[in-house]
Every structure is written in C-alpha cells, then in structure tokens.
Amino acid sequence: MANGSSFFVTTPIFYVNDVPHIGHAYTEVAADVLARWHRQAGDDTWLLTGTDEHGQKILRTATQHNTTPKEWADRLVETAWLPLLGTLNISNDDFIRTTEPRHEVSTQKFLTQLRDAGYIYEGEYEGAYCVGCEEYKHDADLVDGTGDYVGLMVCAIHSKPVELLHEKNYFFRMSDFQQQLIDLYEQNPLFVQPEAARNEVMAFVRRGLDDLSISRSSFDWGIKVPWDDSHVVYVWFEALLNYITATGYGQDEELFARRWPATHLVGRDILRFHAVIWPAMLMAAGLPVPKQVFGHGWLLVGGEKMSKSKLTGIAPTEITDTFGSDAFRYYFMRAIGFGHDGSFSWEDLSARYQAELANGFGNLASRTLAMVTKYFGGAVPAPAGYSDADLAIQAVVSAAATQADAAIERLAIHEAIHAIWTIVEELNGYITLQEPWALAKDEANRARLGTVLYTAAEGLRALAVLLSPVMPLACGRLWTALGVEARLGTLTAQRIREAGQWGQLPVGTVVGALESLFPRIEQAPGA
Ligand code: MSP
Predict the structure, then answer these.
(1) How far apart are CA 394 and CA 501, in angstroms?
(2) b/e map 13-46, b = 16+ CB within 10 Å
C-alpha cells in the first residue's frame, strides 16, 4: 500500500450489560496495533470503537439493578468501557455510543432510505430468540439444555433457554441479496478472512437467506422506527450502522467518502452479522460494502470461549496491573495467531515476559546503551568498514521491516511481530559473538568496537520504530534513551515503511540512561 492511502479500522461496539474482560481487550488491542502501524506509515487512519447500548439485554440488566437503561449505560461507559481504553493504551480516534443523537438520527435516515427503496415490509415473526446473543435463532442453532435447563432447548453459545417470540415486525428483504453476496465473496476472496471464516460464511449464504426481522414492539428501549413509533429498531440492525453513523453517513458526505469503507475486526461469534447482514444492508442502501471483515479467534478457558456470563472472564487490569499494558499487548498479539483460538495462561505470560521481553528485547537495549556510555562517553560511535557479520544484521533488519509490513497488510499481526523479533534474536547473537567488552580491552580494536556498537544501536533504532505500534510505552522510553528525538523527530513521526533502511541513527547522538524496559516481576498473579 502506498503512503497516504486511507485505513479505517473498527472493533465491534460492546454491550454495556457488563464490564470488559480480556476477550474484549483482545479485539481492542489488535485494532489499535493496526491503526498505529498505519498512522506511522503515513496513511489517513481512523480507529473507531464504542458501545452497543440498546436492546433487551441491557434493558433487563438495568431493571435487575433498579435503574433505567440509560443510567446503567452511562455508568458502565464511564466506569468500565472508557477506562478500558486507558488500561490498554488504545489510540482510538472516536468512541461511538448508540444512544448518541448522531447515531439515532442517521439510523432513522437509513431505515427511511431502505423503506423508500422497497426493501422493508410488514410481517409477522414467530420463532426463537436468544436475549444473550440478541439474535433470532433457527432450530439448528439450539442444543439440549443441561443442569437447570434439562428438557429445554438452549442457545448453543449462552447455554440458556431461548424465548419464543410472536410479534408483528418490520422485515428487511435480505433474501434478495443472496446472489449479490455470493458474487461479492467470489470476486473478492479477501472480503471475509481468514479462509475458514470465508468458507463458513459462503456455505451459510449458499444454503439460502431468510428475510430479517428488523423491529421489535414488545419493549421500547431502542431507536424508534421513523414511520411507526410503536416499534423500535432491532438492536443488531442499528448496531451495525454505527460504523457509518460515526463517520458522516447522512450528516457529512465528504467525511463519509473519506473514511468509508472500513476493515472490521470481529470475534468469530459475530461474523455472520458482519459478513452477511451488514453488506446486504449496505447493498440495499446503494452504499459501498466494507473493505474487509476479519473474524478473529476466541480466547478460551477450559476449551470454551471466555465469557462473563459463564463467569470465566478475566479483567484486563488483573494483567496490566502487574505486567503493564505493553506486555499485555505484546503477549496477546504474539502468542495467539490472529484468526486462531488461543488459551491464556499466567505461566505462558510470565515465561514470555521473562524470556522475550526482559531477557530478549529489554536486555539488548540496556546492554547496548550501557556499552555506548561506558566505551564512548554516551556518543554513538561512527561505523568503520562493515564486515559480513555487520552486513548480515543490516539484511535482517531490512527483511524484517519488509516482511512485517506485508504481514500487517494481511492482518497477520503475529507474523509481523515474529518477523521483527528476528532483529532482537540476531542482534543478541551478534553481540555475544562480537564480544564488544573484549574489543574494548585493546585500543587497536577501537574502530571495530565503534562499528559493533553502531550496528547494535542502529538496530535498536529500527526496533523502537517497528515495535512502537505494539509496545508504545517501552518504545517511547527507548527512543528517549537513544537521544535521537532532536535529530530525527518523535518516535511516532518515524515512517514505519522506511524503518529498515540502514544508517538513520546519526553518529554522535548522545544516548541517555535507560531504566529497565521490562522490570523483573517478583510474583505473578495466578502463578
Ligand atoms: N454488541 C455486539 C457487537 C455489535 S458490533 C456492530 C457484541 N458485543 S459483545 O460485547 O458481546 O462483544 C463481542 C466481541 O467481543 C467479540 O466479537 C470479540 O470481538 C470480543 N470478545 C468477547 N469475548 C471474546 C473471547 N472470549 N475471545 C476473543 N474475543 C472476544 O457482540
């Protein structure tokens, strides 16, 4: 992708019935890493996240807590969902709440547009509904209940009984879009990713699509249907619209054209909403479909999706309070292939923190800067002639930067980090082999010592730039310690697609002290 293209990335908007756990944090971090990468590449980047506040689930939670749904949503947003962004160091450009007027007004506009185009009709819905999913269910989505629910059919995701609905609803003619959707998936094989997600969605659509009930009349916590205020809009139908109501649809067409279409990151639990219903809605309105829908895997506990309703949720602060946000971000992006399920364990987190962050990256940084200080009074020495070993490092840095950018383009975040980490590993091996402490013993080796330490310090420069989307705080500290800000500018101003070009660190730059990037952790929780 050339510099200056646009990149709009979204997370799902999260339900405010409960507080976030590390599964929600996972999507936030992935979106943030991509957004930071693209910003540093000079792309016109926008990161949108937010909260999904209407529907029966929120209404019931509020009622159980003797409050109104709006008060409940306000409380959860203020005390839990906005603070999550700080906990994880998320650089979102916007945060949309579905109770905001900008969303409500534009949602109504969209509905009117669809009705005028003939895609909405009145009908009767009879069938099962899962309030946990806020989704109409087919028989195939249900399983036999266990425990308290023996003898009942329950939702396969929530393990709770579904409710039987019989209501007059408005329907969206989604079935009209079956062929157009199949054409979309076939013509644009990257539209739904990864491959397994694409196959699942295609098989689902090939089986045939029903029309979709898009309103509810048995409760009123939602956005009113513009031509019939005895109905509110089905919560998923309006939630999906957040991606365009937050970016100018119906209000600011110029802005909308600049931002849209988006790359949507979603958990695979909500893939169909994004890869089937959402593009069909956009097609009906004559709007461009999303750029891409990426269904990532689940964080598992005991082989099942981590969830608050099953009491398996871990609060992100349980991890960040001990390890910090950088280690949180690194761990989840590195240890789990993006697109695959993965299990979290305290042991694995502690082991990677120690081996990869503290001993690997942290130690490389501190010993390099300490040697520049000790042997050259803190001024980065000039490289003399490069040997094969030095040139090999330059080749590793260049290849890592190129491979990482290509991996980010494919949304393979773990592969990008893996590629960048070859620099950490190769440089640590290089220092061990070159033994600068031995070179320092003989004045005759002074020029060689300068080359070795220049190579290590310049490698650190590249690492700071390439890892800053993943670990912005540690890389910011490293950038400060490298002392290059006055000469090269701020870390985030460094063009990431040029990070692999050798020799950017100016000779003579005076490095400063570096406190341990990843301090030792005495006792990890849960360990
Ligand atoms: N409100 C809807 C989304 C509407 S988007 C237009 C919703 N909200 S949710 O609060 O249930 O969040 C679901 C999302 O949270 C998943 O799609 C995923 O991004 C994230 N995760 C929740 N649990 C997760 C795991 N156990 N593992 C990984 N991600 C998880 O659905």
Answers:
(1) 8
(2) bbbbbbbbbbbbbbbbbbbbbbbbbbbbbbbebb
pLDDT digits (tens, 9 = 90+) for 77-103: 999 999 999 999 999 999 999 999 999
Give residue-wise pLDDT tens across range 198-252.
Answer: 999 999 999 999 999 999 999 999 999 999 999 999 999 999 999 999 999 999 9
- 270 CB under 6 A from ligand 1? yes
Catalytic, 291? Answer no
Ligand 1 pocket residue status of 295, Cβ below 6 Å: no
pTM value surpassing 0.90: yes
Amino acid occupying residue 165? L
428 domain-assigned: yes
Q: What is the CATH number of the domain that holds 402?
A: 1.10.730.10
pLDDT given at position 294: 98
The range of the structural domain enclosing residue 391 comes to: 346-498
Strand order in the sheet with 263-267: 94-97, 44-52, 6-15, 263-267, 292-296, 192-193
Question: Is 451 within a domain?
Answer: yes
Rounded distance between C-alpha atoms, residue 147 and residue 117, angstroms: 48
Asked, for residue 458, whether it belongs to a domain, the answer is: yes
Q: How many domains does the chain have?
A: 1
85 lies in a domain? no
Atom nearest to 27 CA in ligand 1: 19
Q: Name the catalytic one among 38, 133, 264, 296.
A: 133
